[in-house]
């Protein structure tokens, strides 16, 4: 990857917004790179929210990101699971469900999946 221009954009004024139930995806594009701020409200579960938009049995997007707030538990199709908390960097392969733990919104910043996550197929 090569950076060819100096750019700065705010997630508070994103290039694109996606709003499935209990979900806020704010997307900014800098050059050839798409970044996302994902905010999931308490009670959010992928299989009950984003699934209604993408119509797959599990999330088929790969994720690389950093958790800024809240707690998210991810369960793979094989039953393995991990919990992501503030300060954690994470990778999540395709083929999973996920849900917010507790009463605080999950906020993650992602560098890989923002171009496609929660976007209708």
From TrEMBL:
Region span, Disordered: 1-23
Question: Where does the source fall among the domains of life?
Answer: Bacteria
InterPro entries the record matches: RmlC-like_jellyroll, RmlC_Cupin_sf
Could you tell me where the Basic and acidic residues compositional bias lies? 9-18
- Protein's UniProt name: Cupin domain-containing protein
Which species is the source of this protein? Pseudarthrobacter quantipunctorum
């Amino acid at each position: 990857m090569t950076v060819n221009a100096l750019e700065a954009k705010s997630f508070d004024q994103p290039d694109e917004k996606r709003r499935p139930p209990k979900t806020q995806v704010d997307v900014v594009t800098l050059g050839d790179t798409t970044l996302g701020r994902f905010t999931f409200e308490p009670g959010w579960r992928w299989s009950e929210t984003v699934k209604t938009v993408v119509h797959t049995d599990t999330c088929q997007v790969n994720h690389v990101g950093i958790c800024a707030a809240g707690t998210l538990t991810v369960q793979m199709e094989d039953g393995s699971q991990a919990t992501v908390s503030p300060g954690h960097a994470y990778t999540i392969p395709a083929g999973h469900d996920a849900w917010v733990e507790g009463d605080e919104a999950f906020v993650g910043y992602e560098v890989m999946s923002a171009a496609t996550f929660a976007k209708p197929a």
